[in-house]
Amino acid sequence: MLIPHPLLGLRDAEEFTYLGDASLLDRPDPHAPDAAQQFYEYQHLRDNPAGIHRELWFHEQGDRSWLIVTRNTLTHEILGAELARDAKGAKA
Amino acid sequence: MTELKPICALGGAEPASRRIGALSLREDAGLGLASLALRAGAPAPALGLVLPGPGGWAEGAGLAAFWTGAGQWMLEFPGGAGRDLAAELAGPGLSVTEQTDGFTAFEIQGPAAELVALLEKLVNVDARRFGPGSATRTGFHHMSVFVIRRAPDRLAVLGMRSAAGTIWHALVEAAERQEVPA
């Protein structure tokens, strides 16, 4: 399986380690009144979709960047990859 | 007094070298290395070369640099293994770490066609995208190495110094398998 790294081109998936759902980037506000409930949901309640899924991959044997890879969990087709720092920065 | 004798990463008093078919493999015990990271917003230091972008390697006078990550480079100083590079390079806005002792460098020279064929066996990197002036970190026999294409006929592999023997064995094995008996 090859992952289209935004900077380095197609790279062997073996160079990466997998973390999980990209929603982990959206850390709740610890000062919110319902912070405990929000962190419970953030930590433990994840969607497990059969289909398109955005997930975090770490280029461990490469440039050590975090990527958000969009993958179809049914076909393993990789639909795209972007740098997590760009995605996070665009949101901030 | 204890008499200490410096040895190369492969254990010899002199750097190892082998000629296998059209390829020559050489241990470079003299390469000085330092990693450089620019802190947020800091300008690039005046090194006499333009720090290369992702996947790039650039050569200046007496030094070279390759990209290792966003805002991060490895600087190479041929023959500079004995220098105090971290102290020489230190400056405002820079994070510099001495890397010489952590790595070992192997230089491979040979005709471009043979070199590309060897590269394709060594690492899973698209050789068409890996022309002269390219460098990348990648997996190699379950180790992480830096691979640098210094010139059409020159390739370098930098890996963990403690794994020098393993890397050398893997390079020699790949070159021997590729060798066409005369």
TrEMBL record, chain A:
Highest taxon listed in the record's lineage: Bacteria
Gene Ontology biological-process entries: tetrahydrofolate metabolic process
InterPro entries: SoxD, SoxD_sf
An example molecular function term from Gene Ontology annotations: sarcosine oxidase activity
Name of the protein in its database record: Sarcosine oxidase subunit delta
Lineage of the organism: Bacteria, Pseudomonadati, Pseudomonadota, Alphaproteobacteria, Rhodobacterales
